[in-house]
Amino acid sequence: MSGLIQDFRYALRQLRKSPGFTLTAILMLGLGIGGNTSIFQLLSAIRLRTLPVRNPQELAQVKIVGGNRGMGINQQYGELTQALWREIREKQQAFSGMFAWSLNQRYVGRGSEMRHFNGLWVSGGFFPVLGMRPWRGRLLMPDDEGMCPVRRAVASYSYWQRELGGRDLAAGIKLIADNDLVEIVGVTPPNFFGMAVGQNFDLALPFCQPKEGFRRDVFELSVMGRLKPGWTIQRASADLSAVSAGIFEATVPPGRDPETTQTYKRFQLAAYPASTGVSTLRDDHGSLGLLLAITGLVLLIACANLASLILARASRREREIAVRMALGAGRGRVLQNLLVESVLLGGTGAIVGLGVATFLSRALVWAISTQGDPVNLQIVTDWRVLLFATAATVVTCVVFGVVPALRAIHTEPLSTIKAGGRGTTMGRERFSLQQGMVTAQISISLVLLVGALLFVRSFRNLLTLNPGMRESGITVAFLGFWQSHLQPERWASYETELLREIRTVPGVRNAAISTHVPLVGGSWEHGVRVGVREGTSKFSWVSPDYFDAMEIPLLRGRGFGRDDTASSPRVAIVNETFVRYFLSGVNPIGQTLRTNPEPDYPPTVYEIVGVIPDTRYNDLRSPTPPMTLAPVSQFPAQGPWGWVMIRSDMPPAAIAAAVKRTLAKKYPDVLTEFSDFQQQIRDGLIAERLMAMLSGFFGLLAVLLTAIGLYGVISYVVAQRRNEIGLRMALGADRGQVVVMVMREVARLVAVGILAGTALSLIAGRSAGSLLFELKPYDLPTLLASIALLTTIAVLATFLPARRAAKVDPMVALRYE
Q1: Per-residue pLDDT at 319
Q2: What is the reported pLDDT for 423?
Q3: For the segment 622-660, what is each residue's pLDDT rounded down to a tens digit?
Q4: Collapsing DSSP states into helix, strand and coil, what is residue 441?
Q5: Which of these, 174, 160, 200, lies nearest to 110 by C-alpha position?
Q6: 27 compared with 676, residue with greater pLDDT
Q7: What is the dihedral of CA 765, 768, 771, 773, to 10 degrees?
């Protein structure tokens, strides 16, 4: 132990003597370890950390195997219907307790001043099965379920502090939530965010049954339970599979065609682990795993750089090490001393890396959040993060510390002491290890650079894509008028009245109603028959001015007019993809299409009166599907809300404020919300932007590290070969020939590195193919641009050492021989 302490002190003295080397090493390690740890910290928060409930490993989720095939109305995290939940609860044998929940954004307050809250609707067994204890008051129980309206609610700790001021519940806190007057009876613990990772709830409310009963076609619930002692996921799945036929037979949604009904009856239920909850982030940001691999390669380059620096440093310390060994120090003791130095560097780099990781991980959470969809993740340095950082540090120390240390102790003390301070004319094999490391750095840098350019170009392709409609200058207005207490038959005319009022606002050039806001993720689909051809088509119902407001031209036929009313024959406008799929080679004007029956959507025959060009539907990435647009006056499922697309040359915030003021004066009970259409589209590209930004940053960092490494190695090689260079110049070689000699050496290293990097890029590109848009992973221009950039940087990095080598004075160099 005393020897180890001595080595520790000696290593500290040696590192203090070389502050430049020490700071460079710690900075490179801190960035490398910090980058890796930050990505892992985010992955841990999204995928690995268990829910803050009692025995989370016992939780399982019940889902339909393979999903519901898009049947019915699907809400976020909605796997099952209310009817399925009740049947499962009665017939299952695998769970000691079960609960269901759904997460929706609703409104608190009245009139135009209503504001959002994230609502968690739960069954009575939700909190008891989770083993949750209240922070204040009480939590919801089975007795709180019943007929609508809801009377009681539970607040999350953050909402209680933020919106309710942490008030005492005994005084009675009542809110108008989702149009019902509810009393806040309890507060959940501070660490409980709900069941959806990244989406904190504000208020938890109990399920209530409306007078008309629950709809069987709305997949809105996530159903979970606590497994009985001794039961496994596999056994629970077998139990659920056995009762699936009876459950689906008893819960068939009405109003469906026979084929859809039979498909529904063939569904099977299964159990899935639920200890970590659920999260859309696991699907939306699966590229985090690829980013972890990218940062790992950057760390590998940093390790190779450090190994080269330590080799060069060890060469300068050869005489010191030789003297110590000549005086009796064993090779093992010298090895231990050198490794302690590496461990000190690695440990300090890890500490710096944890600080960098904390900053970067929080920056990443900010980067994947949007104004309309904030991400709430608890970023903590738990045992998983510490274990990962420790493992990264150990691997790093092994990579950059062991090999140089082993090489240093295999020198012959006598020959080294005899050489003294003289230069050496030893052969090129002396530098083979460092050259190999440089070659590896070049190949890895090329892989990262190609990946970075691919992701940046893919993101650019999405940004510059023409979606077939106007993006800029469009403000989306959501109008909610459920507090106006209108009869359902008045909803459509009231929405049209609001539209006319919006058009009177100064600055509004045009405005139109649409049941679907394109390019922001929503979707509505119907089964369609055209002649003998069957398939599906996306549907939207729009007002007559929609095509002009969105600058979508009409290719054939006519648009919608004031004569297209609820009592007139049904008409439709379709896109070119619809024409190709259903009516290949036939004039579509005058043809008819028939929709399959669904709840609230009876089978309807539409006459095609027009054709529009293909436009993107629910996002920029997906190919254009068959699309059908019909007059909003003929919409069969009108609700007390709607969307208006407002075209204006004014800034979105200004036009939104003007419209809000106008409507608030005349219609104070109408809720108004506004968003910038173009910004909503950009927010949908957040995963692509994150990949482009981070891969670009780490790619450039890798190239910079490689350039530094190449510069350092060539400088060291030139310094060690100064006698050889002096002899060449004494024998007649001019400075240009010396520069060419050094550059030729570098060219060989770069060529080998590029060949290896090209092969690796083609192999690695396969894993990134699905993340690219209108770009192949083996894109030749990207590869050539990466090679050209890396080669240019390599030439610049080695020109200064080569030029310095050409300035060697032959007489000074020969004096040491």
Answers
A1: 62
A2: 43
A3: 899 999 999 999 999 999 999 999 999 999 999 999 999
A4: helix
A5: 174
A6: 676
A7: 0
Question: Is residue 100 over pLDDT 90?
Answer: yes
Q: Of all helices (H) and strands (E), which one includes residue 408?
A: helix 403-408
Over residues 166-175, the mean pLDDT reads: 88
**Strand 146-147 relative to strand 556-557, pairing:** unpaired
C-alpha dihedral (89, 95, 96, 102), degrees to nearest 10? -60
- Collect contacts of 121-124 with beta carbons under 8 A, ≥24 apart: 121/204, 121/205, 121/206, 121/207, 122/204, 122/205, 122/206, 122/207, 123/85, 123/98, 123/99, 123/206, 123/207, 124/206, 124/207
| Per-residue model confidence (pLDDT) at position 333 | 66
Largest Cα–Cα separation, the chain? 107
Q: Which candidate, 308, 358, 314, places its Cα nearest to that of 35? A: 358
Tokens of 465: 């894509």
Q: Give the C-alpha separation, 184 to 117, whole Å.
A: 14
Q: Where are the beta strands (DSSP E) in 266-333?
A: 269-273
Assign 220 to helix, strand or coil. coil
Distance CA 41, CA 43 (A): 5
Give dist(CA 778, CA 451) in Å, integer: 10
Q: What would you report as the CA-atom Rg of the chain, rounded to the nearest whole angstrom?
A: 34
Give the CA dihedral 376, 120, 656, 163, nearest 10 degrees: -70
pLDDT of 714 > 80? The answer is: no
> CB under 8 Å to 225, separation ≥6 — which residues?
59, 60, 62, 92, 94, 95, 96, 97, 98, 99, 129
Question: Which pLDDT does position 494 carry in this prediction?
Answer: 96
515 or 353, which is more confident: 515
Q: CB burial class (10 A; 0-12, 13-18, 19+) of residue 631?
A: buried
Structural tokens at position 703: 């190239």
- Residue 329, pLDDT score: 61
How far apart, in whole angstroms, are the C-alpha atoms of residue 664 and residue 66? 47
Contact between 132 and 192 under an 8 Å Cβ cutoff? The reply is yes
Q: Residues, the chain, total?
A: 817
Q: Name the helix (H) or strand (E) containing 184.
A: strand 180-187
Average pLDDT for 745-768: 87
597, HSE (Cβ side, Cα atoms, 13 Å):
11
CB contact burial 233-248 (16+ within 10 A = b; e otherwise): beebbebbeebbeebb
Closest CA to 411 of 308, 337, 309, 335: 335
CB atoms within 10 A of CB 102: 23
